[in-house]
Structure formats: structure tokens, C-alpha cells
Amino acid sequence: MLLELKDVSVNYGKVKALKNVSVEVAEGEMVSIVGANGAGKTTTLRTIAGLLHPVSGEVWFDGKRIDGRHTEDIVRRGVSLCMEGRRLFPHMTVVENLQMGGYCRKSSETRKNMEEVFEIFPVLKERQRQQAGTLSGGQQQMLTLGRSMMAKPRLLMLDEPSLGLAPLVVSDLAKTIKGLNERGLTVLLVEQNARMALRISDRAYALEVGAVAVEGDSESLAGNDYIRRAYLGV
Q1: pTM here?
Q2: Order of strands across the sheet with 56-61?
Q3: Quick check: helix, strand or coil at residue 137?
Q4: Contacts of 133 (CB under 8 A, 6+ apart)
């Protein structure tokens, strides 16, 4: 397995945010984590990225234990987190935002990685000198994805990428994420939009109040009565 969470528990003060959560992601897979607000989805990603530390359990990446390591070290190992809400530098240009994403890479690698980002998102190349804050919502999400890819990750973690986007833009975004996975990039996708997440992922976990409620292949979960009632509105 490329990524393994083994019985991970995380607290916010006295509040148990995650309770013995176990998640596996094989290299080349796209795995989604769905659930309502407060279920522990973002906490899971932040724990993998080293922004939070488990009170118990272990996080392993590429055969090495990474919980307790600094975030910068985890990024250098090949883990990149695309955070919820885009969080761009609005007064910096598209190119400058992308350069920030490649800070841990050599300048020669940064130039190559930027060309790859421009190949995937041609509109970013067209607007490379434009301030990020003046882009449309969909273009900002492309830039956020591109910035995360500048670190040349082996595992790309996406936190609510469809949040606040129009349905047509969400559809295009789903195709883009699927395309990245088809290019060989391993993806861990966190989404409230369970319908979209289950449609494009290979396997999925449903979190409820900090614990895994259901897991399995995405097609089966899409037909699961619990998932249909709780997340698909049917």
C-alpha cells in the first residue's frame, strides 16, 4: 500500500475528532472519503499531512511511518494537500502561486513541472501574469490543483474541491481529477458531494462522527442503502 492509516485517533482538546480510523490507498488508486460536516474528513487529511498528530495509531507512506514528522518532510516524500477553500495568494500572479507550490523542488524541476501544469490547464498559461484573485471560481480551483501538483506528489489529497462551484464547473472538475488519476497520480479525495466522489473513485470510506461507518468499492457503496439515504438523498 502507498498510504496506510492504522487505527488513528486524533483529539481537539477533549473532543475526539477521529476514533480508530483505518484507511488504505494503493498506488494508482483514487479513493474517496465522504461524510457530513464534522465527520472527520478534513482532520484525516490534515493528520496525513502532518498538520495534526494522532494520540494513537500510525500513518505509513511508501513503507515508512510518517506520523510525527514535519509537514515539509512529508511533502518532500511525495504527499501534497490541496486544501479546502482554495487559499490562493490573491495578489500574486498565477505563475507566482505555482512557484510557491514548488518551493521544495529544484528550479529546473519547477520549470518542468509548471509546463506540465500548463499542459493540463491551458487557461492558466493564458492567464499566467494575471492576479489569482481576479480569476473565476473554476479557474482558481484549477490553480489550486496546479499549485499542489508543483510539488510533484505521488499522492494528491483533495479537500472538498467542488465546494462553492457551479454544477457545470463541478462536472468539468470531476473529469479533470479523473484525468489526473488516469495519468498515474494516486488521489485521496474528500468530498461532501458524495455522488460525484463515488462516480469517479475506485473505493470509498464513509465517515460518521469521526469513525468509519462503511467502506468498499465505490460502485457498491453508491447502491448501499445507508449511503443512499445519508449522502445521495434517495
Answers
A1: 0.91
A2: 15-25, 3-12, 56-61, 64-65
A3: helix
A4: 88, 90, 91
| Helices and strands: H and E segment counts in the chain | 10, 10
> How far is the C-alpha of 46 from the C-alpha of 156, rounded, in Å?
13
Q: Give the three-class secondary structure for 148.
A: helix
C-alpha 23/C-alpha 118 separation (Å) is: 32
The three cell numbers of residue 70 are 514535519
CA geometry: angle 75, 152, 73, nearest 5 deg: 15
Q: What is the dihedral of CA 179, 75, 161, 232, to 10 degrees?
A: 90
For 210, the grid coordinates are 469521526
Total residues belonging to the chain: 234
The structural domains of the chain, ordered by start, are 1-78+153-234 (3.40.50.300), 86-152 (no CATH)
Taking phi over 0 as left and psi of -120 to 50 as alpha, with beta for the rest, 164 belongs to left
Mean pLDDT value of segment 132-157: 92
User: 47-64 pLDDT, tens per residue?
Assistant: 999 999 999 999 999 999
CB 151 within 8 Å of CB 93: no
